[in-house]
Each structure stands twice: as C-alpha cells, then as structure tokens.
Design brief:
This protein has 656 residues and is of the alpha/beta class. Among the domains are: 74 residues, no CATH class; 124 residues, GMP Synthetase, Chain A, domain 3. Helices cover 33% and strands 23% of the residues. The chain has 19 helices and 31 strands. An 8-stranded mixed beta sheet has the order 12-11-8-6-7-14-15-24, with helices on both faces. Strand 25 and strand 26 form a beta hairpin. The longest helix is centred in the first third of the chain and has 17 residues. The chain starts with 5 loop residues before the first helix and ends in a 7-residue tail after the last helix. The protein binds 5'-O-(acetylsulfamoyl)adenosine. 5'-O-(acetylsulfamoyl)adenosine binds next to helix 11, strand 25 and strand 26.
C-alpha cells in the first residue's frame, strides 16, 4: 500500500481520488462515530489517514509523545517528500488540472494559471536553482515576497530539497526580517523588486537590502522581477530569479526526508519577548492539513477554492499551499486587497473565477460590510458553496451579513479556530454536517481533544461554562519546538498546565458542547487577525528618546476587532503631542511594521503599579475598553491617584 514499488504506486495514484472521498465525513452520525474512534484509537485513526500518501518508507510507530519535557513524533521513522504528495502523485490523473489560479492586484492585468504539471516543473526548476547555490537538506531559506505564484513555487522548492522555509510576511519591517533571518541563520533570501498592494507599490528589495546589512548568514539574494522598478544591486550576492531559472533543469528528484524532519519555521508573537519561530515537521503536518482541508472545505473535483490570507501567515501555508495541493484542488492566490479598486473586489473575483469555497477573515468582512451592499449587488456569487472564517472571533453582525448577503442563506459558514502552533484547524463545523450557531466554532475535528480549565488547572467537565482552552492529546500537526529554544516551547505551551497544550485562548462551551472562542487571555493582541505581542510594541515605543516607559493593551476596534492602545510616560513635557505621536508611530513601523501601529496613544504622567513595580494591566485594559464601572481593587497600587489622572486624559472615556 505504501511501498515505493512502481506498479503499486501507480495503482495507488489512480485510486487516490476515490480513497480521498472515503475520508470525507458526510453525516453528523458519521462525525460522532469517527470522533469517538479518533479518541479511542488515535494511532489507528491517523494511520488510515496517512496511508493514502506516497511514502518511501513506512513508519514504525504512529505516535510517540510526552507533554512533560515535551516532545512529539508522528509516523516515527517514516520517509517521504511532501512535494511528491502535493505534485508528482497528481500528474498521472490530473496533470492538466489547474493547481494555482493567480489573480493579480490590478483587475485589468492578466492573471496566470499553473496546472499541476506546470507547477511541478517550476518547483523542480527552482529546487535546482537553490541546489546550484549550495542549499542542502536542513538549510534555512527566508522568503520575503508578495502574493505571487513564485512564493508558492519557492515554498515547495525548499520542501523538495528538505530545506526549511521561513516565510516573512511582506508587511514586516527590515528590522523584523533581520531578526527572523538571524534567529534561524538563513542562508538564502528570496524576495522581489517590489509588491503591488492596492494603488501602492512597496519596495520589497529596498527593505530586504536594509535587512541584509545585518544578516551575516545570508549568502545569496534571489530577486523576482514583479514591478520592474529600480533596485540597488549587490554584485556577487544578488541574482535575478528569471536568469537563474533559465539555466535550471525541470527535472529534480524529491529527496527523502524523515517524518520528523523540519518542514518550515514561521515566526509568531507571544506574550513575552521577540516573536518565536514555530517549527513544523513533515509527515504529521502533511496528514493533518490534508485531512482538515478535505473535510472542512469539501471541494468537489472541479471546484475552485479561494483563501484570501497571505502566505506570510499560517493560514496561507496550510490552506493556500499545502492542504489544497495535497488534496489535488485548485487554489486561488490573490495579490490584492479587499478594498481596491473598490469594496467589491472579492465579490468580483468570486464571479470571475467561479469560486466555490471562500475562506476569509472577520476583519475583511467588517470593512466590506461597512462599505455597503451596493458593492455586493453587481455580483451573483452563485457558485459559492462553503464560506469560511478564521483569525479572530467573528461577531454576530458580521456572521449574519456573511451568511445572508454573500452566502445568500444557502452556504454554511465554517468558523475555523486554530493557531500557528496547531498547524491546522482544530475546532470547526463541517459543512452540511454540523448544525450551525452564529459566532460558534462549534465542535472539535476528529483527533482533537479540547478541554476547559479553571485558572488553577482543574478540568471543567460540565457544559454552559467558560474556561481556559487547552488540548489534552497531540494531533499530527502540533508544534514541535520553537526554533533554537526548546525550553521556551515547553514553558509557553506545556509548562502552565502540566499534561495539557495551553492555547492562550479563553472559550465558552454551551449546552450542546459547542465551543465559542472568546479571545486571548495573555498579552497578545489580535489586530485584524494578526497576532501582536504587547511586549514587542512596548520595546519599539521605548526606543523613542523621550520615552521613559510604556504599557500597551488591546482596545475594541470596529473593523480590526482589537486595536492597540499605548500609555506612554515621557521624560519631558511634550510640546506638540501630534508630532510626538507621529514619531512614535514611525518608530513602531520601523521596528515591527505598519500592522503594529497603535490606534490610540495617551501620554501619561505615571502608570498604575503595584508596590513590587508590576503594571496592573487589568486597569489599563478597562480604561482602553472605555469601561470604568468596575476597576476592581486598586488599594494595592503604589499611587492609586494615578488612575484618576489617566482616566481624565483617556480619549476612550471622554463624555463618560
Ligand atoms: C489561524 C490563525 C491564533 C489566534 C488564536 C485565537 C485567534 C483564530 C479564530 C480565533 C476566534 C476563530 N493563527 N483565532 N481563529 N478566534 N475564532 N475562528 O489565526 O496564530 O495567527 O492566531 O487567533 O485567539 O489563538 S494565529
């Protein structure tokens, strides 16, 4: 069944589409049955799901783990290459099927499609380019690119060689790129001259150049020509993508990697310190992203699936590139933004490309909802079958609008809860299987065992409760480590509640056992579905020469879900608050990127601190929420009067 024997392999390839349909859950009764089996016999359950792939060597053991000093291995000693499963195995049956449909930023520009055969050839070619530059298995490669097919090609080319990709979102600053490159000592940086976003051009190469002034590990920089604008060139280091590709053969055997060899690193913010490099490995990630993609989106054979995320985030890794390609689906890559040239862009693309499954974030829905129905009206949206949501809690108003005006009340909404660390979707409805309740992520997928804990770490077994969301058993795509610092991984996710993976989220469970995710309970702010650590923003603000100290908390934001509210103490009287605030915003943009810019800055004479010097963030959060009805006990503060001074100056409290 899995042995690399050409006859059996081709039988398997021919069978795989049928086999896949047997993995699809078609009724609630079947869901219940499969869920129960996944808990009673997880190893048997996942072995069946792993069996349909091409393996060079079968695993000896399905799972080996402990949550104490933390280690997890899935499909132990298996050997495989994920790109053979994304590409090669589809060639015999559907080589001419569209793999990637690329929709450029400008609706007047021609897009591009790549069939499975064409994508396979380009991936092989770029693997050969990397190989010619000395990239070998285990090397790290940083990708800082726009949403163009070449980003997916570069991702897969790394995986074909067993090199570890580290994609850095195109909105991050030079400082953020160099931090990430240095943390994992990337050897190669792949970028483009520029990126188009709406009516703007972002000079990615200039930013990359600045980053590379402090990244000694980078030997070569490969530049894809996207915008055609001027770039500075460092001879000997910089290489044009098209020139290198022209020299490369389209033939590149996939190397055999171990199930637990690293596939990629993706940096994500936590409650303390610099972003950490979440490391995912190969086989478990492959099995899980494929299984969840197939069940949550259920694409038919000729369907077109579109996830609007950027590949710079985990959603793009798992549900634009790997999940869909593993399933042999057609996946759309969109370069643009939802509101340009107007707020009908998503709906226009859905009609143009006849999209059947559409996956986006609540923040985009809220901004499009605000733009008015006149932007939806011109489009039929009649091809849509399933709508997805991800990244943050979806509010009821946005859920209902999405369901009614986009899905025309006939498309189920899958509200998918998961994290960079989980690799794939953990809690989600299954379309036309799970009875929906607006704003609820509903039930765990098979193989996922969520629990709610009290702050003391006690499991809450009854329903109609709220608690800290933890998972008590590993699933195949669970985080393996944080790059270069395993102790940080153990302490962050397994240290707080021994025996459980701690998500950092709070959740409610209702009478049907449905989960509703409330949001982060740690010092992470979810801005437009993107995780920003308060400590990172504070560090950036503190770089301003006038700043003595700062405290950053979340505030409610009508479009972004959460905004960033910064309380800042200065060492001098600020003459022009406007000029000072602009400088602070500039500093944050420089240190992190525009996504981390505070929405509200309040200059304060002091912060509410306990006698031991700890900032009482609870009080600042209340003020940022504009809710001072119950500030709780302030008697332990060093100087309780500071609270009134802050309240008096808080823009959120004006008129209260
Ligand atoms: C996929 C992704 C993870 C955090 C997570 C939550 C929040 C994500 C939902 C959600 C409510 C959802 N990865 N989150 N999905 N909250 N409902 N459906 O976003 O690592 O960038 O963020 O996002 O707080 O912990 S992420």
């Amino acid at each position: 069944m899995y042995i690399c024997n050409s006859v059996r392999q081709s039988i398997k390839i021919i069978q795989h589409l049928e086999v896949m349909s047997s993995l699809i859950i078609k009724s609630f009764a079947q869901y219940k049955k499969e869920y129960a089996r996944s808990v009673e016999n997880p190893e048997g359950f996942w072995a069946e799901r792993a069996d349909e792939f091409v393996w060079h060597r079968k695993w000896d053991k399905v799972l080996d783990y402990n949550f104490v000093d933390y280690q997890t291995q899935w499909f132990v000693n298996g050997k495989l290459n994920i790109t053979e499963n994304c590409l090669d195995r589809h060639l015999a049956t559907q080589g001419d099927k569209k793999a990637i449909v690329w929709e450029p930023n400008d609706p007047n520009d021609a897009g591009q499609t790549l069939t499975y055969r064409e994508l396979h050839a380009k991936v092989c070619q770029f693997s050969n380019v990397l190989k010619s530059l000395g990239v070998v298995q285990g090397d790290r490669v940083c990708l800082y690119m726009p949403m163009i097919p070449e980003l997916a090609i570069a991702v897969l080319a790394c995986a074909r060689l067993g090199a570890v990709h580290s994609v850095v979102f195109g909105g991050f600053s030079a400082q953020s790129i160099s931090d990430r490159i240095n943390d994992s000592a990337c050897k190669i940086l792949v970028t483009s001259d520029g990126a188009f976003r709406g009516n703007k051009e972002i000079k990615l190469k200039d930013i990359a150049d600045e980053a590379m002034s402090s990244t000694p590990s980078v030997e070569k920089c490969i530049v894809f020509k996207r915008t055609g604008s001027f770039v500075h060139w460092t001879a000997g280091r910089d290489l044009w993508w098209h020139e290198e590709m022209a020299k490369a053969s389209v033939d590149c055997p996939a190397i055999s990697v171990d199930s637990e060899d690293p596939l990629f690193i993706l940096y994500t913010s936590g409650s303390t310190g610099k972003p950490k490099g979440v490391l995912h490995t190969t086989a478990g990630y492959m099995v899980y992203t494929h299984y969840t993609f197939a069940n949550v989106f259920r694409p038919g054979k000729n369907d077109v699936y579109w996830c609007t995320a950027d590949i710079g985030w985990i959603t793009g890794h798992s549900y634009i590139v790997y999940g869909p390609l593993l399933a042999g689906a057609t996946t759309v890559m969109f370069e643009g933004i939802p509101t340009w040239p107007d707020a009908g862009r998503f709906w226009q693309v859905i009609d143009k490309l006849k999209v059947n499954q559409f996956y986006t974030a609540p923040t985009a829905l809220r901004s499009l909802m605000g733009a008015g129905l006149q932007h939806v009206a011109p489009y039929s949206l009649s091809t849509l079958k399933v709508l997805g949501s991800v990244g943050e809690p979806i509010n009821e108003e946005a859920w209902i609008w999405y369901h009614k005006y986009i899905g025309k009340s006939r498309c189920p909404i899958v509200d998918t809860w998961w994290q960079t660390e989980t690799g794939g979707i953990l809690i989600s409805p299954l379309p036309n299987v799970t009875k929906l309740k607006p704003t609820m992520a509903t039930l765990p997928l098979p193989g996922v065992q969520p629990v709610l804990l009290t702050p003391e770490g006690k499991e809450i077994t009854e329903n109609n409760v709220e608690g800290l969301l933890c998972i008590k058993y590993p699933w195949p795509s669970i985080i393996r480590t944080t790059y270069g610092d395993h102790e940080r991984c153990r302490a962050t996710y397994f240290g707080l509640f021994p025996g459980y993976y701690f998500t950092g989220d709070g959740a409610k469970r209702d009478e049907d056992g449905y989960y509703r995710i409330i949001g982060r309970v740690d010092d992470v702010i979810n801005v437009s579905g993107h995780r920003i650590g308060t400590a990172e923003v504070e560090d950036a603000i503190n770089k301003h020469p006038f700043v003595v100290e700062s405290a950053v908390v979340a505030c409610p934001h009508p479009i972004k879900g959460q905004g960033i509210y910064a309380f800042i103490i200065c060492d001098r009287t600020i003459v022009s608050e406007k000029a000072f605030k602009d400088e602070v915003l500039l500093e944050v943009t420089k240190q992190i990127g525009a996504i981390a810019k505070p929405d509200i800055i309040q200059v304060v004479p002091g912060l509410p601190k306990t006698r031991s010097g700890k900032i009482m963030r609870r009080i600042l959060r209340k003020i940022a929420e504009g809710d001072i009805s119950n500030l709780g006990d302030t008697s332990t503060l060093l100087d309780p009067s500071i609270v009134d001074v802050i309240k008096a100056g808080a823009p959120t409290l004006k008129g209260k």
